[in-house]
Each structure stands twice: as C-alpha cells, then as structure tokens.
Design brief:
globular; mainly beta; Jelly Rolls; 5-stranded antiparallel beta sheet
Length: 120
Amino acid sequence: MFDGQILIGGTSGPTIYSPWFPRQGDFLIATLQVISTAATGGTKTLKVEVATKNTEDTGDGTVVAGDLTIEANAASFTESNTWGPGVLKELVRFKFTISSDGDNWLFRMLDNVWYDAVKA
C-alpha cells in the first residue's frame, strides 16, 4: 500500500497523515513493516493510528482506539492490528507519529485486509 516510505524526525517528532481511502469492509487489518531505522533506544517509536470520517466531515478525522507501535530496539519490525466493527466511517487514513527528534524510519504499510462482519 505504502512501499518504502521515509519519515525523518524534526525538532518535535513529526506527525504525517496518509491520503484518505474508502472503507471496504466492517473490519480492517493493517500491517506495518519497518525496513530500517536510524533511531536507537527503547523509547523511540514509530506509531501508526487510524483516523476516520464521513465524506461530508471536514478536518483530520477522529482517531479510533488501537495503534501499531514499533520501538527502535524491537525484536520484530512487523506489527499488525485490527479495527472494527462499527468504528470505521466512510473514509479511513493512517496517522504516522515519530516519538522523538532525529529519528529516521524507512517503512512500508502492507496491503490492507478488509472483511465484513458475519451475521448468524
């Protein structure tokens, strides 16, 4: 979905948003994979959150509960999370936040997996 993106930390740990994309199901499984990082130490992280809104809404959208967080010294640089049902509106996007100054992260977001809730 987003392949080989670079986030370079500024003076206050920047926040970057992805473009909006349409919701394609009741549930979303998103996977973050860090390719490389120049960050060191357990307190330096790359956090991915999901924001959502309806097409007629303005602004950055509402961040929903749950996130993907990877620390610079993590044993695994791949993390997945599931959102839904009922929390995702018509439009969805990712919010990327670097925890501190001077961190550089090379990462990708794998293709999203969407699926609908099952009704018995």
